[in-house]
Design goal:
- This protein has 8 helices and no strands.
- By secondary structure, the chain is mostly helical.
- Helix 2 packs across helix 8, helix 3 packs parallel to helix 8 and helix 4 packs antiparallel against helix 5.
Amino acid sequence: MFQDALNYPRESDSAVKTIVIGGLLLFFSFLVVPTFFVIGYVVRTLRGVLNGETEPPEFDDWGDLGMDGLKVFVIGFVYSLVPAAIAVVALLASGVTAGLGGNGAGSGLAVGFIVVVAALAVAIVSLAMAYVLPAAVVAFVRTDSIAAAFSPGEIRRMAFSRTYATGWLVAFAISLLSGVVIGVLNAVLIGALLAPFLTFYANVAGAYAIGTAVNEMPSVDDGDEMPAGRPAA
């Protein structure tokens, strides 16, 4: 799956054009709006893989692309509120502890303990949200409903699937690899210029890995072990 995912973004006659467009959009992501089109393209890629398409999609129907990107951005934002809420609660708790304890050493130790525990909790929850988020996006893609991205049953079925976990790990490894390559290239000027294109490539490859893994998941419907992303014959 790792090799197939790495090759997937190049499996079309317009691969170079697509990667150039995606990279340029990420290059101008500070304008915010281009980011929605990139997210929308990744969503379209995932939808294509779930439907059994073997080649990456093209950049067209920009209105639909941007709308999909906006919807998934909202989904990701909601999921990000969970670790953010933990951080806010920890900040308030440390402030209250410091206020009640005064300037004593015990108060300082208590505040330090809260900060360390909170930082660990935020890190763990952030990783969990990063693991769950692709499953939420898959649920959205299947139904075209934002509400489906927060369906506990569907999310739980994917999150506890070994097949999904494998796909997620492949996508994570690709992202990590691209980060290492970008870090090395940043030592020279050209690295900063290539980073958006490598990031786009990695996101598309990761979407392929997730979509392929979901397609290979056994279906729980009627007890048949049928790939979840494909209709029954």
